[in-house]
Known about the structure:
Blueprint: H1 2-10, E1 18-22, E2 33-37, E3 41-46, E4 54-58, E5 66-67, H2 80-85, E6 88-89, H3 95-103, H4 107-111, E7 117-120, E8 125-132, E9 135-143, E10 154-156, E11 164-166, E12 171-175, H5 178-183, E13 189-192, H6 200-206, E14 211-217, H7 221-234, E15 238-243, H8 252-259
Amino acid sequence: MNNIIKDYIYSIDIPIDTSVRLDCPICSGTKTLSVTKFTDCTKYYCFHANCTKGGVIKEGLNITSFNTPTIQDNGDTPNKLQEDKQHWRRGMYTPEFCNYILDNRCDYAMSNKLADIRHDYKQDRVVFVIKENNKVVDAAGRYIGKNAGFVPKWYRYGDSGTPFICGTYSHAIVVEDCASACSVSSFSTGVALLGTSLSEKVLDILSEFDTVTVALDKDATTKSIDMVMRLNWELENVNMVVLERDLKKLDVKESKKVLKIDD
């Protein structure tokens, strides 16, 4: 039943953060199915008295999950990344910032300087800074304010296409978001794709590791398989784990068990 609604909803182009009324494919009600598209899920509900079908379709992270404004450079427009960086703070953290860091197991990476994590006080986001040769080239920000559901959960500050990398180990764990990358950094190197595909740039980065494990959510199984097939052409030791549980909510022992990593 849910697959019928899911396939029906996916056949229609609904913009992010938009609600539409559609005919219900289950009860055939006219304009009774309310559908709202968010960056990380799609919510639906039929208001017909004889139907009342409703639910949530969870989305895997993709490039649209990291909303970046398009800035046209006419020579007078300042670099957007440089402009945003002015609002990133170190040390002056809010309780919400600290709670997010602790609740998502980013504290080890932050305290051991494996990740440069700051607070965007203007947008109220936890900022995971992305660097190349110690130079800031991009960042991804996770919203922690009070208007959740009305603003994009993730915000990509630039368009470098560079993944967020956290750790110093030769075993790379490919994940979808920065917090997950941080959560595994005490025993491996987390590589967060941030919704990007396996570009040549990402492949070059992953080729520097001895072992690569693709660890995406269950909803992204097809994406994981495609990724592994592509990586197998370039690398020797490639594994895949379909996550039933959120890595950033697990302790080290649990994470190693889920990822099938021996001590």
